[in-house]
Amino acid sequence: MTGLVELAPYLSDDALIDIANRTDITDMKTLIAIAPYLPDEALTELAGKIGTARIDDLIELAPYLTDEALDDITNRLVEAGKASGLIEIAPYLTDESIRKIADYLLHNKDIEGLSKIKDYL
User: Fold this and answer.
1) DSSP assignment letter at 51
2) Engineering a disulfide at 78: which of 61, 62, 83, 110 sits with its beta carbon 3.0 to 4.6 angstroms away?
3) SS3 assignment, position 75
């Protein structure tokens, strides 16, 4: 899939969406490498595929995601009890998502997490 990274700037949005939909989640490095070229629709779907288990991949993908996708991810991670992993992507999150994470951290008495996110509140 390494050739895909070189081709990505020249592919149509439809082709990129198709590639993102067909690419196995285990090949996240390739998908993250082409993220700057993926349309919002493909990025949102990709973020949904990642789910709650792959925080590191979300951190790499965060700069390319829409606010809507980031809010959706925040909601899912808060529900799954994994919102503290989102502290790393706080600069990309909406105010609403930051508040949800802060509420989660406060509820769980995560003072260290709150101190990391306080600058974004």
Assistant:
1) T
2) 83
3) helix
Angle at CA of residue 113, ends 66 and 64, nearest 5°: 15
pTM above 0.85, yes or no: no
Which of 49, 59, 53 is CA-nearest to residue 90?
Answer: 59
- Half-sphere exposure in the Cβ direction for 9 (13 Å, CA): 1
Question: What is the distance between the alpha carbons of residues 100 and 103, in angstroms, rounded to a whole number?
Answer: 5
User: What are the structural domain ranges in the chain?
Assistant: 2-120
Question: Digits of tens for pLDDT over the chain (121 positions)?
Answer: 568 888 889 999 999 888 887 877 667 788 888 889 989 888 877 777 776 557 788 888 889 888 988 888 888 888 888 888 888 888 999 999 999 999 999 999 989 989 988 888 8
Q: Looking at domain 2-120, which of 2.60.40, 2.30.29, 1.25.60, 1.10.1420 is its CATH number?
A: 1.25.60
Could you write out the DSSP letters of every residue in 12-45?
-HHHHHHHHHHS-GGGHHHHHHHGGGS-HHHHHH
